[in-house]
Amino acid sequence: MLNFKRSEKLSKDAKQIFIPVINGTVKPGEFSKSLHLDLQEQLAFFAPSDKPIKAGEIYEFPAKVENYSCERIALVSLGNVSDQELRTAGAAIGRKLRGKNEKVFLALTLKSHQYKSLLISANLGNFQWSLKRDQKSANSQVSVPADDGVIKSAQVISDAVNRARELIHTPSNKKNPEWIAKQAKRLANGAKVEVLSGRALKEFGGLLAVGGSSPKPGPRFIKMTYSPRKSGVPHVVLVGKGITYDTGGISLKRPYEIMAPMKSDMAGVATCLAVISALRDLKIEVKVTALLMCAENSISATAQRPSDVIKHYGGKTVEVINTDAEGRLVLADGLAYAVKNLKPDYLIDIATLTGSATLGLGKQFAAMYSRDLKLINQLKEAGEKSGDRVWHMPLVDDYVAALDSDIADLNHTADKYNFNGGSITAALFLEQFVDKATWAHLDIAGVGRAEADAGENPKGGTGWGVRLLLQWIGSLK
Length: 477
What we know:
Helix content is 31%, strand content 22%. It is of the alpha/beta class. The strands form 4 sheets. An 8-stranded mixed sheet has the order 8-9-11-10-14-18-15-16, sandwiched between helices. The longest helix is centred in the N-terminal third of the chain and has 22 residues, at 148-169. It is elongated and about 80 Å long. The two termini are 33 Å apart.
């Protein structure tokens, strides 16, 4: 990981300087007087003028600064200094420092929000996770001429994203619902934590139906409550899908290869937990409750069956059609609980819910469903500012008929009439449990996991949504 600190001057023991290139021109600032070489000529050697220099390109060479221990200079392109280019450049810097324990200096002159974007992405790009016996921890110290508040905010937010990634990357032979509950207590950072299990879950029909397939340790309902000192503030309730491993249950996943990454099916819970862990350090004056709906979807003699009918929290009955559509079952309990007991001003659920979302939007945008235009615009703006982008998807009322069941209030897969639109019908199912709450559903199946180690993201869990939700929650008044 990277540790940021404020410094206006190059320290004597810094081993490397990163100097910005903006619009193809080196901008060394005050450090140009100390350097015994023409940086623009060096850049021309590496990048001829007829070749555009893209944001994130780094040109490194050995160099010395008089009276300092600096050994290397890296010219890093910030492109035209857009937020996206700053994130690209930040990720490149972080990757350059991966696995290293060094002291470096960023000789940049940027605005506060620009520093924040770049530093957050640098720490994200630096992330590595492994259980290899010889894996050594690496912590580089990065000095930046930025305000203390900006540096602290960037550190807290990026550490929270990486915290979510660590939870997602943990293999499922270690990670089960009980383990998640322990992590919630460890990372609460002042939030109150309540955990329900066993008989205390008798009203949570969806959670019991899914988690009953793995009775040891069984499912967990974890409630985390962050309450700021200020009263009369908005109350946000987050509901996260926490399937610690998903075999598909009796409706076994096929082809079997797609089962391997299913340790990441609790990415929604990881995001919620990481958000709660950062609120106190960011001094956010909003009450936030996170409901972590944790279960393992396994195959056993106690697993639910296609054609079972379950009763959710609040009384709605649901006919189970496919046991591999388990995420919406645990979320439904959480949403119904929130409406009945918490009276939220905003109700947000986040889940790796449907492959359909990935087919429609790829890996760059999460699918966002809501009927509240104000909330839609707030989340879109927060997404653009933070880098966790969302795309507003329609809740098509014509498709509600697909939820009909001959024997229960609803069927949960909306297979009737072949409407397709699997991400839409999943959202319509969840909407049946939110009553009149101001609600949004975030389907992060596409963005919650990366297939390759590139840019800000490692291969595997991305921690998507932590930046978005912290940005949005922090903007509420």
